[in-house]
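Worked Example 4.2. Read the sequence first, then its structure tokens.
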Amino acid sequence: MTTRRPVFLVIGAGAGIGGHAAARFAAGGYHAVLARRSDEDGLAKLVNQIEEAGGGATGSLLNVSEDGTIEELIERTERDIGPIDCALYNLGAQIGNRTLADTPHRTFELGWRLGTFGLFRLAHAMLPAMVERGKGSLLVTSATAAVRGNSGQHSHAAAMAGRRMLCQTLNAEFAPQGIHVAHIVVDGSVDAPDTLGKLLGDKFEAYKAAKGEDGVIDPAALAETYWHLAQQPKNCWTHEIDARPFTDVAWWNDNPIAAINRGKPGT
């Protein structure tokens, strides 16, 4: 299969942010390449939805923790489908709340491999071709843990903070060469059935109801932010942006003193 449309590559294409971003870019004229670790039926469903809406899409199962998988996907995509104009690294690295004693070396390392090393490998394999073409975008989904390390988040916070710093170094090197690197801090819960939904199980709907109307991030709305970032002109690039529901307190204000102040009359 060949196409001359620019390619939007998503690593971490679930039914939440990744799948909705793929659909948005496909609607905008890109061929979406969706990669995820498991659930072949779920992947096929996302691809079919994009095709039924008139877009182009391809799905691929990918285990990022295995050597060579990202590199092979990029080589195959560029060869068989088209040039990757924009990529989204949307892979999570959350292993749940764990004390230090309950965080084995292998578990900590897995967070780093998913959260940071996978992004490094993507950039290492993909950016040279973008530089040769003189354009391209790398969008990176991140989390509150990238800017604040909470108890029980040793692996996740280290991985996300590393992801953020890696994005800054990539931006410093490649922005002058015409490559837009954007780091998106998702500072709130996302209405994603195969991530938050699986984590909460049968409590998922009750959780969303308790958050109230528009109290959980709509991944389709967030996809518009990703689209906007990829379309920004070179003279007005955003490197880092954060997003949350209007009812959530921003990460930099969510601390004990701020919580006390929010409870005072007139504050």
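Now turn to a second chain, presented in exactly the same format:
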Amino acid sequence: MDQLIQKIAVFALPVLFAITLHEAAHAYAAKYFGDATAYLQGRMSLNPVKHIDLVGTIIIPAVLFFVGSPVLLGYAKPVPIDFGKLRKPKRDMAWVALAGPAANFVMALMWLIFFILLQAMHVDEAFFTEMARAGVYINLILLAFNLFPLPPLDGGRVLTSVLPHKYAYKFAQIEPYGFFIVLALVYFNILSLWMVPVRAVAELLLSLLVSPLKILLT
């Protein structure tokens, strides 16, 4: 029980930051490109309460964790976006979608820098080093998962944006079934074929970005 409580404590802050900034980034990008819907509804906020969904953010991940699922899935309260209000809806949809994973990448970078600084300062407190590792891990998982090219995930929005109008319309019709398709892909362990290489590329980029800092501190 003590180990479980410690694990929850280590992951709690990284998860809250990852979800909150991911959704706030969508809201900010939407406002930047012309749709103030999320902003007017108070969703362009760093307050986690604004973005947490009881079922998707808490109950589903908790159930998957306790049953020993190899993949933890969940979702936040979707940011309301009226794509028709964007200045160039089809093009700007991609930028709004990419804002969330981009925020996760930046957060992973910040957590990694925090971890490097802890090592440089010889901080031996396991709680903080594990939290930093968890921050990198959670954000890369969310980045890879959300970039999967299936609506309503961010990757699906991006693909819809770049497809010709005829095919984009047909592809977007998959959205009502997207979550169930994802569950099936997880069950048959197919989603990992996407997530593993995407995470590997993201980790490589992170390593390249922090390499000057590592050299400076050694």
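Notes for the reader: The chain has a mean pLDDT of 89. The first helix runs from residue 2 to 32.
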